[in-house]
Amino acid sequence: MRRAGLGEGPPGNYVASGYSVYEEENEHLQEGLRAKVSALKSLSIDIGTEVKYQNKMLDDMDTDFDSTGGLLGATIGRVKQLSRGSQTKLLCYMLLFCLFVFFVLYWFIKLR
Protein backbone atom coordinates (compact mmCIF):
# COMPACT_ATOMS: atom_id res chain seq x y z
CA MET A 1 0.00 0.00 0.00
CA ARG A 2 1.30 3.42 -0.89
CA ARG A 3 1.10 6.45 1.39
CA ALA A 4 -0.80 9.47 0.12
CA GLY A 5 1.14 12.68 -0.30
CA LEU A 6 4.47 11.10 -1.28
CA GLY A 7 4.50 11.67 -4.97
CA GLU A 8 0.95 10.74 -5.86
CA GLY A 9 -1.52 13.05 -7.50
CA PRO A 10 -1.07 15.59 -10.24
CA PRO A 11 2.52 16.41 -11.12
CA GLY A 12 3.92 19.61 -9.57
CA ASN A 13 1.69 19.53 -6.50
CA TYR A 14 4.11 17.66 -4.25
CA VAL A 15 7.78 17.98 -3.58
CA ALA A 16 9.87 14.84 -3.10
CA SER A 17 9.83 15.26 0.71
CA GLY A 18 6.05 15.22 0.82
CA TYR A 19 5.72 18.93 1.57
CA SER A 20 2.61 20.15 -0.21
CA VAL A 21 2.26 23.35 -2.21
CA TYR A 22 -0.98 23.80 -0.32
CA GLU A 23 0.92 23.74 2.97
CA GLU A 24 3.24 26.45 1.65
CA GLU A 25 0.25 28.51 0.63
CA ASN A 26 -1.34 27.95 4.06
CA GLU A 27 1.84 29.14 5.79
CA HIS A 28 1.94 32.20 3.55
CA LEU A 29 -1.69 32.95 4.37
CA GLN A 30 -0.99 32.40 8.08
CA GLU A 31 1.80 34.99 7.96
CA GLY A 32 -0.57 37.45 6.30
CA LEU A 33 -3.18 36.70 8.93
CA ARG A 34 -0.64 37.21 11.74
CA ALA A 35 0.28 40.59 10.27
CA LYS A 36 -3.39 41.60 10.11
CA VAL A 37 -4.02 40.41 13.67
CA SER A 38 -1.04 42.39 14.97
CA ALA A 39 -2.26 45.47 13.08
CA LEU A 40 -5.74 45.04 14.60
CA LYS A 41 -4.20 44.58 18.04
CA SER A 42 -2.20 47.80 17.78
CA LEU A 43 -5.24 49.60 16.41
CA SER A 44 -7.42 48.43 19.30
CA ILE A 45 -4.74 49.53 21.79
CA ASP A 46 -4.64 52.95 20.10
CA ILE A 47 -8.44 53.17 20.24
CA GLY A 48 -8.39 52.28 23.94
CA THR A 49 -5.79 54.97 24.60
CA GLU A 50 -7.84 57.53 22.68
CA VAL A 51 -11.02 56.59 24.58
CA LYS A 52 -9.24 57.02 27.92
CA TYR A 53 -7.91 60.41 26.77
CA GLN A 54 -11.37 61.53 25.59
CA ASN A 55 -12.96 60.40 28.88
CA LYS A 56 -10.35 62.40 30.80
CA MET A 57 -11.09 65.46 28.66
CA LEU A 58 -14.85 65.05 29.23
CA ASP A 59 -14.31 64.79 32.98
CA ASP A 60 -12.28 68.01 32.87
CA MET A 61 -15.03 69.71 30.86
CA ASP A 62 -17.66 68.57 33.36
CA THR A 63 -15.62 70.17 36.14
CA ASP A 64 -15.44 73.41 34.14
CA PHE A 65 -19.19 73.35 33.53
CA ASP A 66 -19.84 72.70 37.21
CA SER A 67 -17.77 75.74 38.18
CA THR A 68 -19.59 77.82 35.55
CA GLY A 69 -22.91 76.67 36.96
CA GLY A 70 -21.79 77.86 40.39
CA LEU A 71 -20.90 81.26 38.98
CA LEU A 72 -24.22 81.55 37.16
CA GLY A 73 -26.10 80.43 40.25
CA ALA A 74 -24.41 83.11 42.32
CA THR A 75 -25.19 85.77 39.72
CA ILE A 76 -28.83 84.75 39.50
CA GLY A 77 -28.99 84.77 43.28
CA ARG A 78 -27.77 88.37 43.32
CA VAL A 79 -30.35 89.36 40.71
CA LYS A 80 -33.11 87.73 42.77
CA GLN A 81 -31.87 89.56 45.83
CA LEU A 82 -32.06 92.83 43.90
CA SER A 83 -35.60 92.09 42.74
CA ARG A 84 -36.80 91.21 46.26
CA GLY A 85 -35.45 94.26 48.01
CA SER A 86 -36.41 97.85 47.61
CA GLN A 87 -33.15 98.65 45.92
CA THR A 88 -34.74 100.37 42.98
CA LYS A 89 -31.71 102.55 42.44
CA LEU A 90 -29.45 99.52 41.77
CA LEU A 91 -32.09 97.93 39.57
CA CYS A 92 -32.37 101.14 37.57
CA TYR A 93 -28.58 101.27 37.12
CA MET A 94 -28.56 97.68 35.97
CA LEU A 95 -31.32 98.36 33.46
CA LEU A 96 -29.51 101.45 32.15
CA PHE A 97 -26.30 99.47 31.81
CA CYS A 98 -28.10 96.76 29.82
CA LEU A 99 -29.61 99.37 27.52
CA PHE A 100 -26.21 100.98 27.05
CA VAL A 101 -24.64 97.64 26.10
CA PHE A 102 -27.52 96.93 23.73
CA PHE A 103 -27.13 100.27 21.94
CA VAL A 104 -23.34 99.91 21.71
CA LEU A 105 -23.72 96.47 20.16
CA TYR A 106 -26.45 97.73 17.82
CA TRP A 107 -24.26 100.63 16.74
CA PHE A 108 -21.25 98.33 16.26
CA ILE A 109 -23.25 95.89 14.11
CA LYS A 110 -24.81 98.75 12.12
CA LEU A 111 -21.32 100.06 11.18
CA ARG A 112 -20.27 96.71 9.75
From TrEMBL:
One of its GO terms (biological process) is vesicle-mediated transport. The keyword Phosphoprotein applies. InterPro entries: BET1_SNARE, T_SNARE_dom. Residues 20-82 form the T-SNARE coiled-coil homology domain. It is a single-pass type IV membrane protein; Single-pass membrane protein. Its main location: membrane. It is found in: Endomembrane system; Endoplasmic reticulum membrane; Golgi apparatus, cis-Golgi network membrane. The chain crosses the membrane at residues 90-109. It comes from the Eukaryota. GO terms for cellular component: endoplasmic reticulum membrane; Golgi apparatus. Coiled coil: none annotated. Keywords: Coiled coil, Endoplasmic reticulum, ER-Golgi transport, Golgi apparatus, Membrane, Phosphoprotein, Protein transport, Transmembrane, Transmembrane helix, Transport. PANTHER family: GOLGI SNARE BET1-RELATED. Belongs to the BET1 family. Interacts with SNARE complex members GOSR2, SEC22B and STX5. Interacts with LMAN1/ERGIC53. Interacts with STX17. Required for vesicular transport from the ER to the Golgi complex. Functions as a SNARE involved in the docking process of ER-derived vesicles with the cis-Golgi membrane. This is BET1 homolog. The gene is bet1.
